[in-house]
Amino acid sequence: MERYSISDLIQIGLRRFFWVAIPFLIVLILGLLALDRVPARYHSKALLIVESQQISPDLVPSAVRAYADDRLQTIRAELRARDNVVALAEQFSLINSRDETPFSQKVGAVREDIKIRIFGITNRGGRRQQTGAITFEIGFVHENPQTAFRVANQLVTDFLAA
Questions:
Q1: What is the DSSP string of 38-68?
Q2: Threshold 0.70, pTM exceeds
Q3: pLDDT tens figures, 106-115
Q4: Distance between CA 140 and CA 155 in Å, rounded?
Q5: Treating both helix axes as pointing N-terminal to C-terminal, what angle do 103-113 and 82-92 enclose, rounded to 10 degrees?
Q6: Backbone angles phi, psi at 142, to 5 degrees
């Protein structure tokens, strides 16, 4: 087996420079052109934290923890329901009526842009395991940052009202 010195490796690299540099530059230019064609998408989101009760559970039993996850899943399903998505789309002109795409696909696209993530229930440390906080994130993705903000704000309002 032949050993190569540092100077040998540098000479090999310089001789093969164009075999690496030209494909790299071509891919870089094509990537930048493709990136220019992709529309910008803005994600507006709100992080909501629901704190647990501050009174000891020995004095007042908590009814919130028992159904908190189920209730959050129900509210999430309500916000993503077809009627609510259509009303939201009409309120903020999210659906292009001139487009040839079927209406159900347009509604599905708006539904996919609604982002609701439930991070779950965190516990506080201590002698007893007590419920800490329920954290969830509500957001909307759109090409226009103002529309993304307004729709996300409406989603948070609807979430808190439910």
A1: SPP-EEEEEEEEEEPPSS-TTTS--SHHHHH
A2: no
A3: 999 999 999 9
A4: 8
A5: 90
A6: -155, 165
